Amino acid sequence: MLPNIGPLEVVVILIIALIVFGPKRLPELGRSLGKGIREFRGSLSGDDSDDEEPPRQELEQGDREPVTDKQPVTDKRA
């Protein structure tokens, strides 16, 4: 039998995960866990559709606007 998991236990687990994996790795782990759960549910229901985004089209060279600075960079070492 599993005990009831309340909000305090969830917070403690999240704090431990933050300490173990670090703040940079947690979003990646969350995405991979969510993707794995979606794939598992899809395999149980027989849904074979892909939820991934279609590949983005690259912008042509003429479509990009040049980046300009509003203030010119000056050398203040003199």
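the 2nd protein, sequnce then structure:
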Amino acid sequence: MKLYNAIIIDDEIHVQDALKIMVKQNCPDISVIACAGSAEEGRQLLKKNDVQLIFLDISMPHENGFDFLASIPASEYAIIFTTAHEEYALKAIKANAIDYLLKPIIPNELVEASAKAIAYLNLRKQKAEVQQVYGKSIENLSQQVQNKQEIDKITVVEKFGFRIVEVNSICYLEADSNYTILHLSGLNKIVSSKSLGEFEKVLDPKQFFRIHKSTIINMNCLQGFSSYQGNFAILHDNTKLSVSRRRFVEFREAVNQFSKSVN
């Protein structure tokens, strides 16, 4: 079994100690070799040690987690954010496919996040283009959180890598078992390993509406709707998508509200 060296960067000593114990008890392939109470201490640890994985607190005095990442070659490491941060930060983290743990940390979530981070780290080591996309994802995340801006780019996890997608290029999303097919402008499509529900949590609900349990549409791509022989949303490329009876009244109201916001 390959052993991955990790460091913990958190300004709270009790969090460092608790996480170190939890990793030892639940993640036999990870060795926490040191802890740091600040970004500067973390940089010194990276200079002195061979490290593959970083557990990183977002909110720290002087330099926060994003300032720290901007000062190191972040894409070379597996980064797991540990945070009790506001909702907008969590939304941005999820949108950029970055692994995270909510405080207080739960053991099974630690195991899952660590396994994913290591898997993606190994994938990045095999493919340079995947590492480049991961680096851009971290930059997007930093901008979205620190400027509190709306999500305009998301990182889509594919079977063999990542891809950054402009939100406005998504016409609709379609559930396919536990996967999601993103239908993009220009008739392109991407298959993501994330569920439709995970995308619904990060996309702007004023722009993206769930018309069916298996379909979310971008209201910017809507041309019209019909209730003749069934309820349908009609997109600019004449794609017809079924609207569930349960959601049709709410859908019409969403169309009205979206039209007013655009005008």
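The first strand starts at residue 4 and ends at 9. The helical segments are 13-26, 39-48, 65-70, 87-95, 107-126, 128-146, 196-202, 245-262.
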